[in-house]
Write a structure and sequence with these properties.
Blueprint (H helix, E strand, L loop, with lengths): L7 H10 L6 H19 L1 E10 L9 E9 L9 E6 L5 E8 L7 H31 L1 E2 L4 E2 L1 H13 L6 E8 L2 H7 L2 H17 L6 E6 L2 E7 L3 H9 L1 E7 L2 E7 L1 E7 L7 H17 L5 E2 L2 H22 L3 E10 L5 E12 L2 E3 L1 H11 L2 H21 L6 E6 L9 H11 L7 E6 L4 H16 L3 E7 L5 H7 L4 E4 L13 H17 L3 E4 L5 H9 L4 E2 L10 H10 L4
Parallel strand pairs: 12-13, 15-17, 17-18, 18-19, 19-20, 20-21, 21-22
Antiparallel strand pairs: 1-2, 1-4, 3-4, 5-6, 7-9, 7-12, 8-9, 10-11, 14-15, 14-22, 15-16
Helix pairs in contact: 1-2, 2-3, 12-13
């Protein structure tokens, strides 16, 4: 072992090397101070460090750097001693010591210098690992670009420097990447995503950023003058990938929400604005970017408030059931009713259009459907106990229930709990967008039918595959959407509309379904529908949705004049 290992100077060297640092400048100062402790005994004139960094997920490209760790004024010798160290990540750190003046180190001195060099390497590597960990925390390791943490760091820096107002924030979702996942194995689909992400990086200026939120969702901060060009790029991006001796081409577009960043009160406001703009863009299904506005913000906040209040309102039974009569077209007798829900909250009554679409997106609509079924069964049981002859009541069940394999069993369980005969309940289902759902729906309808519970298809004609719905299911009633009723006045396509409507009605009746039409508002409409063979009608021509008291009075009367 060398002469310096037991010396007081070496102890000072190790003491300094153990001190923590918090920046690159502090690290370099520590290394210089440590070397200074042993420079006289080793006759050190200069110490150089060279770093060769490999490309990795955390580094877009390989890097080489060199710096002077220590330099004492004067002439350095020409016989340096160098040591090479390799990190676990494959990076190489070379540390070279130059002697002072004409000094030539002997073997024992070289061993001491190796000890010093190794300690410098350990310290430098430790700090590099810490930096790497910090980078990892802020990087999406799958594609090698910043994640949301890295994005927000960038936002905070711009906000602190009062530069955000010169930027446009962007939130976008890649279209068509599900296709990539379907035709390529998982690891190859990841490679395509890397290619896509690196293409984005190539399009950025040095003071811009793009980051991955996860999946196929990305965010970016782009200088305002470059925003339109960036939108064009992400809306028309083509990448190629070699797989199984073929060149696969993929074309990607995007749903884009954007926000100008003037008057931003805090950095977090950036993510709020672009998230809201993206939500609106997704709802509107627009091909061009949708920019944030305060009106959008108010609407999203209203939606969030409705979702937040829903469960408590359900427990407090703030949802009130109204019943719209269904009328036999032949004799104008009351033959049924549809249960419709209103929300009596905070001193006002909300109509379905104000909350049903929101609960539909959120999935809370499923709990509301069961709530309406419960309240309706309670009403039927109470009325039957008094001897009032009740008609069949239909309950709407959202297509969101399709994923519930126990739906039929749960419906039957609620009806039986209230001891309501099954023929007094009808389940109205809405057309689905997915062919696979028809198989599930057909099985559910079969289970209900076996238990004597009628089913109907609501809003027929507005779905994506109406004829498939008729082919795959065995319903009892078909409810034709009001948009198919020909208007009363003469207009260019009236004859065509009449032909379509009458053929839909005839098709349903030929298949053995009763035909129900909603939205009947005038005598002429009623006369036309009756003439073409519609069985049941409902609408304001007879009654609007009625409160329980008014509905029961109508049930007692039984017919319309």
């Amino acid at each position: 072992m060398g002469r310096l290992i037991e010396s007081a100077n070496m102890e000072r060297f190790f003491t300094i090397m153990q001190k923590p640092v918090h920046s690159e400048d502090e690290l370099m100062t520590k290394l210089r101070d440590a070397i200074a402790c042993v420079e006289d005994e080793l006759n050190v004139g200069r110490v150089m460090l060279q770093l060769s960094v490999k490309q990795s997920k955390l580094r877009a490209q390989s890097e080489n750097m060199s710096c002077t760790l220590y330099h004492r004024p004067g002439i350095c010798g020409c016989k340096p001693v160098g040591f090479s160290f390799r990190t676990g990540e494959g990076d190489i750190i070379n540390i070279t010591f130059y002697p002072r003046g004409e000094v030539v180190w002997d073997d024992e001195e070289k061993r001491d210098i190796h000890v010093i060099a190794y300690q410098l390497f350990i310290s430098f590597r430790l700090e590099s690992v810490q930096d790497l960990l910090k980078t990892a925390i802020k990087t999406d390791l799958a594609v090698g670009i910043p994640n949301v943490s890295g994005y927000m760091d960038f936002v905070i820096r711009l906000f602190s420097n009062k530069r955000l107002e010169h930027y446009v924030g962007v939130y976008f979702n890649i279209h068509n990447f599900k296709y990539v996942n379907k035709i390529l194995p998982y690891e190859h689909a990841d490679e395509v995503m890397k290619i896509y992400a690196n293409r984005l990086l190539q399009e950025l200026e040095r003071d811009e950023i793009v980051a991955r939120l996860g999946g196929d969702n990305y965010v970016a901060l782009i200088r305002e003058e470059n925003a339109n060009r960036f939108f064009e790029i992400i809306n028309d991006m083509e990448t190629t990938y070699h797989y199984e001796n073929e060149i696969r081409k993929f074309h990607f577009s995007a749903t884009i929400g954007a926000a100008k960043l003037f008057d931003v009160k805090d950095a977090g406001d950036v993510m709020t604005r672009i998230s809201i703009a993206y939500q609106v863009a997704r709802q509107l299904e627009k091909n061009e970017p949708v920019f944030f506005s305060e009106d959008f913000y108010a609407d999203i906040m209203r939606q969030k408030e409705i979702i937040a209040r829903f469960q408590r309102s359900l427990e407090m039974q703030e949802f009130v059931i109204y019943y719209q009569p269904k009328v036999n077209a032949e004799d104008k007798s009351l033959c049924g009713a549809e249960a419709l829900v209103r929300w009596n909250t905070q001193g006002r009554m909300l109509f379905p259009g104000e909350f049903i679409p929101i609960l539909e997106k959120d999935g809370s609509i499923c709990r509301l459907d069961f709530y309406v079924l419960e309240r309706t069964c309670e009403l039927l049981r109470e009325c039957m106990a008094t001897g009032l002859k009740m008609p069949r009541i239909s309950i709407n069940f959202s297509r969101k229930h399709i994923g519930n394999p126990d739906l039929a069993r749960e419906i039957i369980s609620i009806i039986d709990k209230h001891k309501v005969p099954h023929q007094f309940i009808e389940i109205e289902l809405t057309e689905s967008e997915d062919f696979k759902d028809y198989v599930v729906m057909a099985e559910m309808i079969r289970q209900l039918k076996e238990q004597g519970i009628s089913t109907s298809i609501d809003d027929f004609g507005t779905g994506y595959s109406s004829l498939n719905m008729l082919k795959m299911t065995t319903i009892d009633l078909l409810k034709i959407d009001r948009s198919f009723i020909p208007r009363e006045e003469d207009y260019p396509n009236k004859k065509k509309d009449c032909i379509m409507f009458e053929n839909i009605a005839n098709l349903a009746k030929s298949l053995g379904y009763k035909v129900v039409v909603e939205g009947v508002e005038t005598q002429n409409q009623f006369d036309y529908l009756k003439a073409v063979g519609c069985d049941i009608v409902q609408g304001y021509f007879f009654d609007q949705p009625l409160s329980v008291d008014k509905f029961l009075k109508r049930v007692a009367i039984g017919t319309y004049q």
